[in-house]
Amino acid sequence: MYQASMASWLGRWTGSKQVILDPADAPLPAGQSSLAFQQLGAGELYRVDYDWQLEGLTRFGSLLLAVHPETDAVTAAWVDSWHQSSTVMTLASASSRAGVLRLSGRYAVETGPAWGWAIEFENMAADTLEMRMYNATPEGDEALAVRARYERVRDS
Known about the structure:
This protein is mainly beta and 156 residues long. Helix content is 5%, strand content 62%. Strand 7 and strand 8 form a beta hairpin.
């Protein structure tokens, strides 16, 4: 299931990324973003690299994904120069709608129990890819934290 979706996401994408710091507040202004989704070799490894603009600065992120050949489960390592700059977050696939890759992980906060984080990829329409990120309280209350929308870059 995930292999077929990820195969359709291979290539270069361009669009915008918007950060929502607090669901009760207005989102930060959207900034330009680009994304490259590539398969490593002929196997079950993929890499996603993206950049995005926030407050006049370019930020960078990367996901390394591995798909289990028998179970189709996906594990990932994620870094982002703004969201997750001092550690590597590990994530794993969770049950999702068809055509949506949802990866979930946890991160430590200064005080209290760990919070949750999820990253989703979904084709919204032909040649359109959306990457969404969600923040979740220790109790499981989830809110949209990032929405990035991309259009496929066609090589001429």
